[in-house]
């Protein structure tokens, strides 16, 4: 990689602007204290880590973060996850680390993981990856981890949700901010990140899995999206991303209403049980009472309910005729008169 500072190009500017806006919004205090004219920060300044695969999206993100983070009063490093799923993965991870260090990122961590077969290759790799990222954040004390998901990834996520008949939460796609995870490039096209790498003389690694048609997301990327663009005109990816944004806004409002309602529904009960006023819950619109059910399952028992599980429990609220309990993983839910009672199954 050349040591000559590259001329700022439109692609580089777009990626840097997206990173700058997110970092200054999230870390306003650090940005206020920083001198934007210098690229040095205090050794105890907040640290952000870029999740770097070596691909064009994360590499462009890493370069932009290396430039923008110091100007926002932040330290910037990188974490590379080696999934060990293909030959030469250790070398690929080492090359990504070398590029990260050349960009000025510090610390640069490599985490090798074992991907356990549970739900499918994509989901299993994702589970292992996020566990490694969380460990890296804890190990370094990082304030946030930046992910390289782009507008194209968002559009593909929306289409995946539609094909699976998912609800608005799934079709709402990825949030720009999810706890400690930040996605500053959700408004940036993949072609822009590729261009930003080219303009800076960076050499991204192209994961062969991204060309493997056995993965649904790859088929959407290679076959479905081009057909939609050809038959319906350009701008499909942007339209899908806007749809996701609108749905996330609606979902956030409904979630807030459900949380507010839940506070008035909880009834005293013994031990680890959670009891709700079923009659009052039945009066709420379906979009609210199903959310209340999911919130209780997640908050009280750590259980993420599927749509089928939620529906089974909701029938005890809206169509109860003396039927028995609904059994979902980790919870038994039953109707006791005007009470909807959640009981952890491990306690039985």
List descriptors.
348 residues, Rossmann fold, globular, alpha/beta, Uridine Diphospho-n-acetylenolpyruvylglucosamine Reductase, domain 3, 13 helices, 2 domains
Distance between the termini: 62 Å
CATH class of the largest domain: Alpha Beta
Number of strands: 11
Strand order of the largest sheet: 3-2-1-4-6-5
> Total number of helical segments?
13
Spans where pLDDT lies below 50 across 5 or more residues: none
**Based on helices, strands and strand pairing, what is the structural class?**
alpha/beta
Instruction: Write down the secondary-structure element order.
Output: HHEHEHEHEHHEEHHHEEHHHEEE
- Return the average pLDDT rounded to an integer: 90
Which CATH architecture of the largest domain is right?
Answer: 3-Layer(aba) Sandwich
CATH superfamily of the largest domain: HUPs
Query: How much helix is in the residues?
Result: 40-55%
Number of domains: 2
What best-fitting shape do the alpha-carbon axes yield? globular
CATH topology tier name of the largest domain: Rossmann fold
Q: Over the alpha carbons, how many angstroms does the gyration radius reach?
A: 23 Å
Quick overview:
The protein contains 13 helices and 11 strands. A hairpin with a 2-residue loop joins strand 10 and strand 11.
């Amino acid at each position: 990689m050349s040591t000559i500072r590259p001329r700022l190009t439109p692609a580089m500017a777009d990626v840097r602007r997206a990173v700058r806006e997110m970092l200054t919004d999230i870390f306003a205090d650090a940005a206020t204290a920083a001198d934007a004219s210098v690229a040095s920060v205090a050794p105890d300044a907040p640290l952000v880590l870029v999740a770097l695969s070596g691909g064009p999206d994360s590499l462009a993100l890493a370069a932009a973060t290396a430039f923008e983070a110091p100007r926002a009063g932040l330290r910037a490093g990188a974490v590379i996850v080696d999934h060990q799923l293909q030959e030469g993965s250790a070398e690929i991870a080492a090359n990504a680390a070398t590029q990260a260090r050349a960009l000025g990122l510090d610390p640069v961590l490599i985490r090798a993981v074992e991907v356990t077969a549970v739900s499918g290759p994509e989901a299993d790799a994702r589970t292992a990856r996020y566990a490694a990222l969380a460990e890296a954040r804890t190990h370094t004390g990082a304030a946030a981890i930046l992910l390289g998901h782009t507008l194209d990834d968002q559009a593909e996520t929306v289409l995946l949700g539609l094909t699976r008949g998912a609800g608005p939460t799934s079709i709402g796609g990825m949030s720009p901010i999810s706890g400690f995870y930040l996605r500053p490039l959700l408004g940036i096209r993949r072609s822009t990140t590729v261009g930003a790498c080219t303009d800076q003389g960076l050499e991204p690694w192209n994961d062969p899995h991204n060309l493997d048609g056995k993965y649904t997301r790859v088929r959407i990327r290679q076959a479905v999206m081009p057909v939609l663009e050809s038959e319906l005109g350009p701008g499909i990816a942007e339209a899908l991303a806007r749809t996701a944004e609108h749905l996330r806004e609606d979902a956030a409002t409904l979630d807030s209403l459900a949380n507010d309602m839940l506070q008035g529904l909880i009834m005293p009960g013994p031990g680890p049980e959670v009891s709700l006023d079923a009659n009052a819950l039945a009066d709420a619109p379906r979009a609210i009472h199903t959310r209340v059910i999911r919130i209780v399952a997640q908050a009280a028992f750590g259980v993420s309910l599927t749509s089928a599980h939620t529906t089974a429990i909701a029938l005890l609220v809206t169509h109860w005729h003396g039927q028995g309990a609904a059994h979902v993983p980790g919870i038994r839910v039953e109707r006791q008169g005007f009470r909807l009672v959640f009981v952890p199954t491990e306690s039985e």
